[in-house]
Amino acid sequence: MGRLPQRRRGKGSTTYRAVSHHYKAKSAFKTYDDNEKNNSSRGLIVDLIHDPARRAPLMIVQFEEQTMAVPAPLGVMVGSYVEAGVTASIDNGNFLPLKSIPEGTIISNIELTPGDGGKLERTAGSKARLVSKEGKIMILKLSSNKTKKLNENCRAMIGVIAGGGHGMKPIVKAGNQYYQKKSKGKRWPVPEGSKRNACDHPQGGKQHKKRKKHTVSRNAPPGAKVGSIAARRTGTGGKRK
Length: 241
Hints:
By secondary structure, the chain is mainly beta. It has helices at about 5-10, 175-185, and strands spanning about 40-50, 60, 65-70, 80-85, 95, 105-110, 130-135, 135-140, 145-150, 155-160, 215, 230.
């Protein structure tokens, strides 16, 4: 039982660890103009890079005092400028607080709390829409069709995150899928338990078919928590202990 993949993953062995040393940058919007609420800062897009950590390309923006990396929206290019602040214009790539964005605008890279750097709608092709404003509460419709209420000082980026068509690209061969999953620390392929060797899984081998479930405690450790977890009955004659 010591070879269970669940236990090896829980331990954090290098086999199942994401190759984060290949990641290019931590994506977050840093500039926050607390002292200049009526002004906006201007930054130059110096590069667009591919990061193995995400599907969307990253744009590297150089402001006067700092450099930041954020998911790039559609339509931006190297050498163009983006603005950040209350008085910024409603153009692709600009960052504004929600209270300064007109209703119906398409936005992305949205903050959950003011100053957190952006948490919502950051994946390739994702977007949200500012539906309405109720006092200091901004109501958004996310790409999942759910609505979200946020503070008026939460910032967002204008536009749709680039790279939305990546799902249409054919994988072609299994090796491409393997390395895509590996770059994010995910297992692939994953055979079902009954197809494994008996030493690798409680359901593995000829003695353990899928119809013969084995119940396990809800409080079992991650390596042993496989099969029928806290099952009231198994369908093979009632409870099993």
